[in-house]
Input
Amino acid sequence: MDEKDEMIIRVLERKARLSSRVLSKMVGLPISTVHRRIKKLEREGIIYGYKALINYERTNRPIGAFLLVNLEEVIPGRGHIPKKTIVGVLRRIREIEEITEVQAFNFELVIKARLHNLKALAALMEQLRSIEGIEHVSSAIITEETILPPSTLRNSTQK
Output
């Protein structure tokens, strides 16, 4: 993967529905080159899907939150529960959009969730606390999200 592929990816992660023609103008490459590179990135599993950007304030799930999850090292009488097992349980919870494994001082997972209201957030946090292997859950409510437009990308990736 080279700098040109990186430019294509950076635009697509913010505006996945752009035509090859518009994308080629944005990254400064011929349409056929852009199309060929996208197909190659898809075959190689670098691009494995496309996602719509949603204005959640206009949906029935306007509350967004990041949940910081601290996992238990060892559970008495049960031993260690693998992170993979806990993530498998979390994947089945409808409100959860993303799960990111991190190395931080006091948490191992960052979960992004979307909810109807703050009571639903409190209920989700209680649900998470009841999962075996989760020791502590903290939350941060998303107050504003800014998606950077792809038009700012070309200048930042070129030397």
In short: Strands lie at 63-71, 96-101, 109-115, 134-142.
